[in-house]
């Protein structure tokens, strides 16, 4: 058994022949095949307009494909009603966006706890988990700060805490460092590396070549197609198998 197979678990994401056509005639994805195994940390790279965010939306079940198969944590998306799909999403997927998407008037704790609203957990337990997640991302001393009282890097840490508080099978990040200065961006990437070492499966869209090069796997998209998929023995602890 290869080291790669030992380190990684079963598929969390399985895409086969996925296409996405937007109304108005844009074909944003053309026959994408992509498997992400539990425990992987991968970069999704490619030029502007190549379909990266579309891919992330389809993988995160925010959007359904026009054709092809999408399975998340073994669940076939096509078989699910919209309601069942949002339940699947809230249980299995966490999202992080370039612009943080925090609720302005709420404390860091309340923002993170909000991400657990549909978990079925009682309010007090949601609060405790939010505090644990904030401590995990290094913001134990900023629980009561509201977004405008936090730096950009701290806001992104709150967003990451919110995304991981429910222990999703998959963390999806669309340009998480895009709005940050170099130092804050680096520390956000370090956090993602740490979460991956603790077992999180993470896909990160990035324009930053340096960030991409430091990740164990890079999937390159061009014109809606996967044109390269490389594993990097040197990057991170995982991924010692080529292809
Ligand atoms: N909701 C939509 N309706 C119609 N066309 C869309 C929609 N969203 C994206 N597109 C088109 O689909 C293509 C892929 O867009 P997408 O946002 O996935 O690109 P991207 O790789 O994330 O680009 P960027 O790096 O600029 O964020 C683009 O040509 C875009 O114009
Ligand atoms: Mg995009």
UniProtKB/TrEMBL annotation:
A GO molecular-function descriptor: ATP hydrolysis activity
CDD domains annotated for this entry? ABC_MJ0796_LolCDE_FtsE
- One Pfam family, short name: ABC_tran
Return the InterPro entries for the record: AAA+_ATPase, ABC_transporter-like_ATP-bd, ABC_transporter-like_CS, ABC_transpr_LolD-like, MacB-like_ATP-bd, P-loop_NTPase
Known PROSITE patterns for this protein?
ABC_TRANSPORTER_1, ABC_TRANSPORTER_2
* GO cellular component assignments: membrane protein complex; plasma membrane
Designated name of the protein: Macrolide export ATP-binding/permease protein MacB
Q: Which UniProt keywords apply?
A: ATP-binding, Hydrolase, Nucleotide-binding, Transport
Q: What is its EC number?
A: 3.6.3.-
